Amino acid sequence: MSEADLTVRVLSAVGETEAAEWDALTAEDPGGANPFVSHAFLTAMEDSGSVGQGTGWLPRPLVIDGPDGRLAGALPAYVKAHSQGEYVFDHSWADAWHRAGGSYYPKLQIAVPFTPATGPRVLTRESALATPLLHAAERFCAAQGLSSAHATFIAPEQAPLFERAGWLLRDDIQFHWTNRGYASFDDFLGALSSRKRKDLRKERAAAQEGVTIRALRGDAIRAEHWDAFWHFYQDTGARKWGQPYLTREAFTLLGERMADKILLVLAFIEDTPVAGALNFIGGDALYGRYWGAVIDKPFLHFELCYYQAIDAAIALGLERVEAGAQGGHKLARGYEPVRTISAHYIVHAGFREAVADFLLREREGIESDQLYLGGRTPFRKDDMSRP
Predict the structure, then answer these.
(1) Over the stretch 223-247, which tens digit does the pLDDT of each residue have?
(2) Helix and strand tally (H, E) in the chain?
(3) C-alpha torsion angle, residues 76, 109, 133, 66 (rounded to 10)
(4) Is position 116 within any domain?
(5) Model confidence over 158-168: pLDDT tens digits?
(6) Number of domains, the chain
(7) Are residues 273 and 349 in the same domain?
(8) Cβ-proximal residues to 377 (8 Å cutoff; 6+ apart), any chain
(9) Residue 265's beta-bridge partner residues?
(10) Is the Cβ–Cβ distance between 345 and 168 less than 8 Å?
(11) InterPro entries, alphabetically (predicted)?
């Protein structure tokens, strides 16, 4: 079937699709089941009011139906009125566009809201539908007067799909922990230099002193745990973003719809939770998302967000931990610099050329930074398990 024979529909919500059909589009995902592109996660964002009217994230998923009437392809897409909650920063592009007399917003964002975690962005039953979907996104931008389309935190194996469609690729750096067949946390520590190994043990001991740490999954996560975590999340969100992105209802829905994919790590003093970290479990990775605390305890952040995540990844046999955006402090804790990729389609030819030139120069700096950071990891220089 040629591209001209395909019909792409623009929906008002992922919730307009059947869960089984949507999730079937990710069945061939090389990275395993990604929790964030699941029907459960994306509809929890919609049904909780975390995205939708008034949020600046207006769901507009693009879908293709197959000859059998079932979904054959989809893009989780949103019309954006700002650049908040994306973690790939294009504010300088918006400023330049506005100075030139144009309007950068609205734009189209192909992404998971508020989630700087890698994963598939083109969901299809067959890869041949990727280009038609991306071309449909381009036509949608033109028809709706959108300045551009942006796909962020693309799974590395999907980058060629965007490149073949003529989109511009942009690199950045995150810090991920890689499981090289470790049998335990102590096994991982054995790969570090002696000084770093001692530092991490001291940090863990200091963080755990006087608190009880519990890792909760499934039915063990109760409403009172979500209430406590919401309190932590509000405090962190207010300090980082001005206001939290997710509503309280979002956590209830996530707990109801995908508790088996959630690892909630809480720290207690006696029976009172005082800090927590929320993780999602994928097919090959553990994804750290949110953290917060009502006490100021040295190293507790590192313990709940990084060390407990390593413990869990080893126990679950997962390949890596993605601990979110930014954070050079992760480097000393065994999280290494890795390339992340976004793709961008700019409607205006002249501005597209300017962005392409910017990305070329930016990429040189990113490559230099990654090389520098890669030489400053805490691992032993004679550790032959590392590439």
Answers:
(1) 999 999 999 998 775 566 557 899 9
(2) 12, 15
(3) 20
(4) yes
(5) 999 999 999 99
(6) 2
(7) no
(8) 331, 334, 336
(9) 215, 277
(10) yes
(11) Acyl_CoA_acyltransferase, FemAB-like
